[in-house]
Amino acid sequence: MKRFSVIIINFLLVGVPALVYAAGEGLEIPEEMNKKINLANLSGISHFVAKCYNENLWVYAIMVTLLMGIVGLTIAVCADFILNMIGMEVSKIEHLE
Q1: Distance of CA 31 to the CA centre of its chain
Q2: Alpha helices, DSSP H only, in the chain?
């Protein structure tokens, strides 16, 4: 059994990468994405978000991630409030193992 596991491990470490390498040359390297948003017709929050996107993608990504979390939390709190109003008890589930 030990010998069989050594064969499997060797195949996974040596055989699979060799098969992947033999699969072909692959795709061409993609060119850098330099998409910029035109800020001329924007104002307010749309201008702010587009400017963040144009200037620093890391700040934009963090901002969008935080916004998604806030929107999700808002939806959960509203759903909890509505369910409590119609009489459904919402609480944490206790898992017994």
Answers
A1: 22
A2: 2-10, 16-21, 45-55, 57-85
Angle CA 49–43–69, to nearest 5: 30
Tens of pLDDT, residue by residue over 17-56, are 776 765 566 667 767 777 888 888 988 998 998 999 988 8
CA nearest to 32, candidates 68, 7, 57 = 57
Rounded alpha-carbon distances, angstroms, from residue 63 to 27, 58, 60, 68, 73? 32, 8, 5, 9, 15
pLDDT tens readout for residues 53-70: 988 889 999 999 999 999
Q: What is the dihedral sign for C-alpha 28, 34, 38, 44?
A: positive
